[in-house]
Structure formats: structure tokens, C-alpha cells
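Progress report, Aim 2. The chain analyzed during this reporting quarter is listed below.
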Amino acid sequence: MYSILRNIGRISACVSASRVAGRIRMTGVTCILLVLCHVSFAADALAHGGRKDKHGGHNNRSQGNYHFHEGPLAGRTFDSKAEALKALAGLTEGASAPRRTAPTVPGKMHPELGVSVAPEVRHTVYDRSDYAYPASIEHQIVIRQGGIYSPYSMRCFSDVGATDIEHIVANSEAHDSGMGSRTRAERQRFASDLDNLTLAAPRLNRYEKRDKDPANWMPENNRCWYVGKYLEVKRKYGLSMDQAEADSVLAVYRSCSTFKIIQPPCTGSE
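Predicted C-alpha cells for the chain:
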């Protein structure tokens, strides 16, 4: 704003000088004023670095920062280009498909599921370190679910080292459904909540399910348990669902007579 006002003042001064020069014989003072106006505007243009780079932004040398004009971060200013590019890269980190960036709209409460239905929106950059959790929590998961196995595949493992900790509602999914506006402490509490944790084979966790919601992925086994836990977590943290996600959850939810976990025979439950 200061820069805009400053330039408006310069324009007024230049116009006044030009009018004076047009009515009377140009004096040395008028010439100097016009030259200074021209140099001042040129300096500002050079400092601003008006040409956009391939990322849709530019360095503003007069203020020592980097500003986006185009793309998903249009209008945002960062202290340096390196910081800006890191933020830009973070928008797609860990995403299996491009995230919807529709404007925030008030969600309607689903009459059966009890969650808000609204488009997913990435308000802030997703940073995995904001969702840190202790590796030791794996042993608490084993105790809670009654063995070292994956409810998704019904596969048992001899050691927790052969499994991954799996978030039923993926961290990045939660981020775009409401956690993105929460504090770092709240995000870490979410990431460490045993209600949202289970075990899975590394391949399934990293390459098949990843950050997908029920509209794009469902387990082969324990679907009722999975949908029940998914809905429980979404309600617990006040997270929304998009329409396709809600439709997929509802289709399974209506078919379930129980939401209890079914354990594989290798746990000794049968």
C-alpha cells in the first residue's frame, strides 16, 4: 500500500511538471524534475522484477521477497524464493491425485452420517512433520487390536517390524477436511490417536491405500469395521467429507449389522 501511494505521488508530480512545461518555457528545474520522475519509475520497475518465472512468480528486490502472481499460491508472498518453492512443492507432496481447490463453502450436515459434506480444500500447506507420532505407539496398536495383523488383508506378521503404522483417515486427507486450520499440537494429537491407527503391510499402506478416502479405496476385509472407524474419527475431530466420500461410506454403512473387527485365525481368536 505504501508503494502504491508513493507512486501516485510521483505521478502527480510528473503531471504537474509536464503541465508547467507546456505553458511556459521549460526551465532547468522543470527538466530536472521530469528526469527524476523517469529515473524513479525505472528504478521501481527494476527492483520489482516484473517478469514472472516458470513458477508464476518473481523476486521483489526492493522488498527482498518472492511473490506469486499465478498458480495455486497466487497472491502469496514469501521471504525468499527457496521458501516459496518449498511451499509450492508441499501442495502436492504425498498426494495420489490432484487435490480439489474449490473455494470454501458451508457444508451441509449429512442426515445419516452426522458429518458435514463439503468439497475438500487445502487452506494451508501440508507438512508431514506437523503430523508426527512416536514409533513406539505400534505396540499399543497390537495390544488394542489383539495381535500383529492387518485387518485389511487378514494377514498376520511375526514382528511389528514387518508392518507399517496405518492411519485409517490419512493425515493428508484429514488436513484437507478440516485439520489444516488446526494448531500443530492438534494435528499431532490426531496423528497419535489410537482410534485412527491400525497395522498394514508396507506395500498396501504406501502404494495401494496411501492417502485415499473410501471413494477411491476400500479394504478387501473388515469393510464394516473400517467404515465405522473412519466415520468415528471424522465425527470425533469435526472433519468433513466430500460428496463421493460420503456416498461410499453410506453405501457400506447401511449394509452393516455390526462394526466389530474380525480377527484372522492366526491370532487365536477362533
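The chain is about 40% helix and 10% strand. The chain has three domains: 1-48, 51-90, 108-267. These observations will guide the mutagenesis work planned for the next reporting period.
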